[in-house]
Every structure is written in C-alpha cells, then in structure tokens.
C-alpha cells in the first residue's frame, strides 16, 4: 500500500508553477514599489489636533532632512516602468493570438477596477453612516478627502494602460523619437507652468511624464536596457542625479519628490524632475537586476513576491483606510499622536508600522480575491468596421474611468457641504465620479463582448 506524499506547500507550488522564462525581477519591482509607497505614506502622514479640530499633516514638513530621501523612496516611476513592460508584453501576446484592443483593455481593467469599486462604494456608504452617528463633520470631510487621494494613481494608470498599444506602435517605429518628444513636451509644459504661471497647463504632465516612464518599460521588454554596460548605467545614474541637484538648487523645483504643503510640487502635477528620477531609478534597478534575479530563484523570496502581488492593489487601496482608523482609535482613547520628528515619534515608528501591517494583512486577505479576474477570451480580430467601433467604445470607457478616478482626488469620497469640486474646469462630486467609473467599466466590457461575438 502506497502512501500519498504530503500536499505541497504554497512555496513549493509557486516554484513548480512558475514558467522558467518568467521575468521574476519585474514582478519584484512592481510589488516592491507599491510596498515602499505604502510604508512611505504610513511614515509621512500624521494628524494634528488643535482646538478640537483634526487636520492632516506631513511628517516631512517637520523633518526637512528627510525630503532628500524621497529621491529614493518616491518609487512610483518604477511601478509605471513595470506596468509598461506588462502592458506591451500582454498586448503583443494578444495580437499574436488574434485578439484586439477591447480584449486587451478589458483584461487589464478588471483586476484594477473590481477592488477599486468595492473600496469606493464602501466608503460612500460608511461616511454618511458616520455622519448619521454624529461623528464630527470636519473629521468626516478630512477622511473623505484623504481617502480619495491615492486614486490619482489609478486614474493615470488606466490612462497610460489605455494608450499603451498606440505608444507601443510609436515605440516600434522610433523608440528614441518617442522618448525625446516626451522629454521635450515635459520641459515645455514646465515652462508654461513655472515660467509663465499657467498652473493648469502643468497637469498635461500627468500624461507626459508617466507615459515616458511606460516607454522605459517598453525598452526593458525589448531587452535594450539589459544590454547596457554597467559603466553606461553608472554614468546615466550620476548624470540624472547631477541634473536633479542642479534643478533643485538653481532651478524653480523643490527638493522633495512628493507634494509638500505650501510649495510647488514635483508630483502634483509631475515635473521634469520626476521624469529624470525615472531615468535614475531604472538605471539603479538595472544595476541590481542580476543579483536580485538570482535571489528570486530561491523558492521562499519568490513565493513572497507572488503572495504580495496577488493582493497588491487591495493593499494600496486600503492602506490609508487602516491608517485613518488607527488614528481615530488613538484619538478615541484620548491619546494624541506624537509630534513628527520627536524622540517618541521615532521610538514608536517600528511598532506603529508593525501594527498597521498586521491589520492591513487581514483586510487584504479577505478582499484580495476581487483582484483575481479572468483574462479576456480570444476568438479573433473582428471585421474592420466592428473593430473601429469596439476600439472607440473601449477608448471612451477608459476615458470615463480615468476621469472618474481622478475626480475623487479633487472631490474626495464624501460630498462636500459647499457643493462640487473642480477637475480641469469640470465640476465633479463623488457620486458623479462613481457613475463615470461604472459607465466606463460597462462600456469597456460591452466592447469586449462585441469584439468576441463576431460571426
């Protein structure tokens, strides 16, 4: 009588199921960049209680020396670079299998939007419920505004993902021209914004700078970056940091690569500094790529990356919610948060981060199945007329989704008592934003079904 071997552990299953040609490094970059963003937000965000009123604050204001650290810790460029690799890889794979743009876009959006809609709808119900239970309205407004801020990333990411096939075609025609055009456009936008005082023009760089980072991901997918010598990478890194020093010392740009209260921001909207930081970070990434890739061949580290990647979007969406609830719990117990930069603040940071991590892990374990969407079914490229119609419908859907998600950044998740907020001259409010996202998601799904239903 034979006995069955014990069931394989998660680590063993992941190792066995991973394709030998999978680029583990880019998966680690994507997961690691989001993890750093979460930890950075937990460290920077704090609250101040004055005369019974709660206001949000940034610890970097109290600890100016840490602003230089944002050159390393502002890692959103790495996420968009990794996203560029994924977008062009998926697009090329689908085209080889006979699929079109609607299938590509729907497959990329499902995993993003299902957890996002659950998050948004939860808070749009929870905040009015808190008001009905007589929570202080100022606190509700602050919470609603704060929780809407991280959605800027999803709004921009949906836009760059939707444009990826077109940008991939430009990349195939002339990668250098695409990069040079984006660099030049970012400089012109900064000139109008910072030189001429046309602040609204600066928001064009939300597209330009992050599309540039995506183009770097295309270069990685082509193997171009892997062929660069270490000498070239070190020279690129040194040149990029020298440019940042010059721009932040003698130019009109602040040192911090995250937004700071009361000063010009390199982040909202992004500036040429963030574009240069993208170049510096991709050079750093390539310098450590071989060593990290060898480390990821070990079962345990690779299983950790896979585990985190399976819940990364849920972690990103809910990390500020956990932070807000933790602050409310402290205040409810009559404990004021320590002053940022004080000895007590530094002493409690390890315990603070550990406690938030444990709570967030439980939340992510419950909600992360929403991220596991099915890929689009491929049945072939539709006839020309239908292809144009479905592509246009998908594009409109993506535009609505992106606008709705960015709208939350302006309006927050709680309707303001004084009326609508404004996004690029358009009045927005949380309910309208949700309708935009839902309609856009529905249009994207409809276009994908039309594309698959051709005779």
Task: Write out key terms for the chains shown.
455 residues; mainly alpha; two-stranded antiparallel ribbon; 4 strands; globular
Strand content: under 5%
Q: Level of helix content?
A: 55-70%
Whole-number average pLDDT? Answer: 86
Radius of gyration (CA) equals 23 Å
Low-pLDDT sequence parts? none
**H/E element sequence:** HHEEHHHHHHHHHHHHHHEEH
Biggest sheet strand line-up: 1-2
Query: Total number of β-strand segments?
Result: 4
Shape: globular
Distance between the termini: 55 Å
For the biggest sheet, the summary is:
2 strands, antiparallel
Helical region count? Answer: 17
Query: How many domain modules?
Result: 1
Structural class: mainly alpha
Please provide a brief summary of the model.
The chain has 455 residues and is mainly alpha-helical. Helices cover 69% and strands 4% of the residues. The protein contains 17 helices and 4 strands.
Q: Would you mind describing this structure in some detail?
A:
Helix 2 (24-44) runs parallel beside helix 14 (312-332), helix 5 (76-96) crosses helix 8 (151-173) and helix 8 (151-173) packs across helix 10. The mean pLDDT is 86. The strands form two sheets. This protein has a two-stranded antiparallel sheet with strand order 1-2. The chain is built from 17 helices and four strands. The chain is globular and about 60 Å long. By secondary structure, the protein is mainly alpha-helical. A hairpin with a 2-residue loop joins strand 1 (45-50) and strand 2 (53-58).
